[in-house]
Every structure is written in structure tokens, then in C-alpha cells.
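From the pipeline queue, job 12 of 40. The input is one protein chain; the requested action is below.

Action: predict structure.
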Amino acid sequence: MFRHSNDGIDENLVIFLHGAGDTHIPFDKLGQTMKLPQTATLSLSASMKMNLPDSSQSKSNSTFVELPFGLGYTWFEEMDYQVTGDVLPNDHPRRLQSLSHAVLAMNALLSSLTDHSSNESSYWIPERVFLFGFSAGACLAMESCRLWKLRRNVPLGGAICIGGGIKTESLPGCVAASYIGDDDQHEFTDVLIITGSKDNVYSQKMAAKTTTIYDGSKVRIHVQQDKGHGMIGSREEMQTVMEFLSKRLVRRMSSMEDMSEK
């Protein structure tokens, strides 16, 4: 679901990615509540169907993963939904393959949103596009930033990862295939990770390990005390998010543009 900025100037774009089994609706409401200046929002649903070159997914109702028993959708396989119902190890081939497909789909979306070759009014500069994900959505957001850099793109504006992020040094297939050696000319996207001190899904230790996998200088970690695995639930967390964004959102000087047109 896309929404224009409240002030009518879509200079920036925040893309929301929900957690497993959730929908885009709560995140669409969050985007409205945040009222970010000159910022449009795009709340994605894992139930959506995208036109991708990979025809192997064409028979599915969704580009991503449908959960069993009508439990909704998610971005990639974190559990063995077919047999045991157990959580898949982070390096499990099925998890990595599924995650690879999701990251490729997200990369295709980001490329289309930042491709200004045909119509200037329908794109954003990469530095003005932000990702905001929770749990599985947070993992997808950060993995997408990793692929975005390895494909030697200009960094995105930033990524906010709530209760999730990169969980393994093993590169998803698409990311590994894109790795062609170190590149000092293109930087990683800035990332804010928020996790709870009692989060047993994406722990403090796991968040800290992320800094050794991703560029540690580009990662800020906020640990919310006495919090388990969940979305933003306190003023302190929201303030941390808003501070991160306030340093990176771009504001167009509309008054100066109006003067130049006269």
C-alpha cells in the first residue's frame, strides 16, 4: 500500500516489511502515525505477486512464502513448514535458497524504484529510500542492503531492523553470486538494529555478531531493556528510530524552488 507524504512532497520513501504471518496493514498505520516530513510510505505484503524472471515461482499465489493452516504469508522459509515444523538452522540450504529468492525480488523492486531512465516523476534517488522491517522483514531488509552493496550500487538512505537482521555469515545464493571481490568505492547502507534484552529470536549476541558480518561502522545497535521479541513498544525505541531518520531524510527547499520558477 502506497501513501503520499502528508505535506505533498514525496522526496523520501520508507518501505515497510512485516514479520511472518502478519500483514502490511499495521505498518501502513505506523507510517501514517510517524508523519515523516516529505516522506512517502510503501507497506509491502508477503502475499503479493511480482513479475520476476524466475518462472519457478509462477504457480504460487505469492512471490514469497505462504504459511500452512491459513496462517498468512512470510518472506522466506525460517521453519520446516512441510514436515517437522521446527525452526531451520540459519545455514540450512532451504532457508538460504528461500531467502535468496526473497532478496532478489526485493532487489528488483528497489532497482525499479530507483531507475530514472524513463520517467523522472516515478523514481527516488537511492539515498532517499529507506527500509523498515520487523523480524523476518528485518532480516530481508538487511540482506537486501548486503546484496545492494555487493552489486556496487549507491547506498540506500538507511535500514531500520526491529528484532531481526543478518543471521549468518553464509551468503544467500544471489548474494554469493554477486560477490566479485572487495569494493572500496561503494559503501554499505547505514543500519539501525533494535532488539530486546530478553529477545530469544534475535538476541543481543546475534545483533552484535552482525557487526562482524556487515560493515560494523555502518551498524548502530539499540538494546531495549526487559523487552522480548516484538515490534516497537516504547517511546524510547520510537525516539531512537526518529533520531536515526532525522539525520538521513532529505528535505527539499520548496520555497527556493518556487523563487527559481518565477
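Job complete. The longest strand covers residues 12-17.
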